[in-house]
Amino acid sequence: MGTVLSAESSTPAISPRARTPSARQRCRRRAILLLLAVALSGCAFFREASPTEAPTPTVSVSAEQVAQAMADDSFFSDYRNEALLVRGTVSSVETASGATLVTLSTGLATAVVCDLGERATTIRAGDSITVLVNSSDVKRLPDEVLLSPCAVQ
Predict the structure, then answer these.
(1) 102 contacts 123 by C-beta, under 8 angstroms
(2) Are the C-beta atoms of 12 and 5 separated by less than 8 Å?
(3) pLDDT over 70 percentage in the chain
(4) How far is it, in rounded angstroms, from Cα 21 to Cα 32?
(5) Beta-carbon neighbour count of residue 66 at 10 Å?
(6) What are the residues facing 4 on neighbouring strands?
(7) Residue 11, C-beta contacts closer than 8 angstroms, at least 6 positions apart
(8) How confident is the model at residue 15 (pLDDT cuts 50, 70, 90)?
(9) What architecture is domain 58-152?
(10) pLDDT at 48 over 80
């Protein structure tokens, strides 16, 4: 019923109607695709949880060590991806554009400046403090090393 003999060849030609899938075939294809989608999403449910990232090591350093490492061009290789606890003596506290900047003395030509942001502080010159900063948040400036943002511990 679906084949017609061609006058030019002895092979039967398939009629255009026979090439289109029937409603039953389309329904079967959709069911298979739906079953495959459900199976794949089910596999994702049973997948192992990805391992948690290892905690960032914390290194305790002095403000002088930070300034010296920056002067020696070794800061970023020495303290890559580490949280730093920087301890030092406050030489000045300034407020600029709403941000509190605490300068730690180093005994070197390069100062270490901690940007506390808009946090209020009772820190005064002469206080010994420790601040926390990620090494990736440390910036080299011409006359200082900027720790921004940092937090007093």
Answers:
(1) yes
(2) yes
(3) 75
(4) 15
(5) 26
(6) 13
(7) none
(8) low
(9) Beta Barrel (2.40)
(10) no
Asked if pLDDT for residue 16 goes beyond 60, the answer is: no
Helix or strand (DSSP H, E) at 114:
strand 111-117
**Tokens describing residue 56:** 């960032």
Q: How far is CA 92 from CA 101, 103, 124, 127, in A?
A: 8, 5, 7, 10
Q: Determine contact, residues 127/88, Cβ cutoff 8 Å.
A: no
pTM over 0.70: no
- As a whole number of angstroms, the distance between CA 111 and CA 142 comes to 10
Query: What are the pLDDT digits (tens) for 111-143?
Result: 999 999 988 789 999 999 999 999 999 999 999
Highest mean pLDDT among 15-19, 26-30, 32-36: 26-30
CB distance 101 to 150 below 8 Å = no
User: Helix/strand/coil (H, E, C) string of 30-97?
Assistant: HHHHHHHHHHHHHHHHCCCCCCCCCCCCEEEEEHHHHHHHHHCCCHHHHCCCCEEEEEEEEEEEEEEC
- Dist CA 56 CA 136 (whole Å): 12
